[in-house]
Amino acid sequence: MSATQPLRCLFAKVPPPPRRPLRRTFHNTTCLYVRPSPKHPSVKASDLGLIKDDGKKRDARFTAKDLPSYSESDKAALAKRYTPAQITALEAGEAAVDPQDLIEQGAMREDSMRLKYLDDLSKFHPVVDKRVRAPEENYDLNLRFKTEHELLGDVASFMTDGYTSHEKSVEEQEKGKSRLDWIKFMDSNRLTVGKEEAERNPYTYLAPAIPKLKILKPKTADDDDVDAATRRLMRQTGFDAREIRRFRVKNLVTHRVVNQTRLGKISSIYCLAVAGNGKGLIGIGEGKSAENAEAFTQARNAAVRNMQPIPMYESRTIFGDVKGKVSATVVELMTRPPGFGVRCQSLIFEMCRCAGIQDLAARVSRSRNHMNTVKATLQALLSQRLPEEIARARGRKLVDVRKVYYDGNL
């Protein structure tokens, strides 16, 4: 045995010194030794005369002489940014400030009725603040709306006012009423007969109306930007236009096909597309047309129309290993642990992205035809057997031990 082993064991029993915490316990502010020193000296409220700490009056301690004045260097700095007229306006505005206002309005209250929060009392908040009600004298029991004849009389008097007024010149009378005059008349004209205060500022016991936000409604089939094919798809599937736009659509196969007829060969474009919402819905569709864009639109609508839900384990992979076979193409899909990723060829990878599968391994044996590979992959995804179905077929009861050991936090 080595001679240093007993000494090493002796020092191993000594507990390490406790680490000094960088922050105080149960407080969200930094420690005193971590706080940076201020760049400028602190200005206390007692130095400005805003609090009573020595029993003296504020009027005697803070006067107009205590207000700082501009030095020559300050005026030179202001002259680089402002014009002489603006500097004169600044000096006149500061000279108009009464020191008594700074004492009364800028002082920090010390009484028991002071506010516990900072608020701009000059502004009225329609939800938080209480409404300033109109006096009861503004109520008029005989208030009524003007009749149509009375309203036409107001409009007629407004139109003929410019021609009968002797204060305006002949040019102004011939010019007539402008649009601004008409807007002012509509804003100021009364619609009732009675007290003016009863219409301008009525007395009521109703609470102020809460402001409402403009809610953006989803577009429906009645919108102008939705074509006829999309409207037909919305009626068949029940999805709205916004949900259809959010689906992940990928064109997997595109090639040119020829149809032999008695009139000759008629060529067209064939497209095979896959669509999904990334949460377990997936479908494939085929389209054929003379134009490439029209063929893809047909394939996309067919894929959305054929979407089906597939079972997913933990919303990331499949239940066990499955196999699908179409013609001579055989596709094997295997489940994988978290973080494995999707390791397969490009066609199966795009289908997994549309379905929302995150961990998967795949193998394509025998023929590797693209069309058959896509169809075999969808067949394998839909052929999964859930553990509940297997337990029910065997006459057993399935219990998820994770809900027991982890208290349901999966």
Give an account of the 3D structure.
The protein has 410 residues and is α+β, with helices and mostly antiparallel strands. The chain has 17 helices and 10 strands. The chain has helices at 4-12, 45-48, 58-61, 72-79, 84-95, 99-105, 148-164, 170-175, 179-188, 196-200, 228-237, 241-246, 292-305, 346-355, 370-382, 387-394, 402-405; strands at residues 144-145, 192-193, 248-261, 264-276, 281-289, 308-309, 322-326, 329-335, 342-343, 360-366. The strands form 3 sheets. The protein has a 4-stranded antiparallel β-sheet. A 4-stranded mixed β-sheet has the order 7-8-10-9. Strand 3 (248-261) and strand 4 (264-276) form a beta hairpin. The longest helix is centred in the middle third of the chain and has 17 residues, at 148-164. It is elongated and about 95 Å long. The model is unreliable at 55-60 (pLDDT under 50).
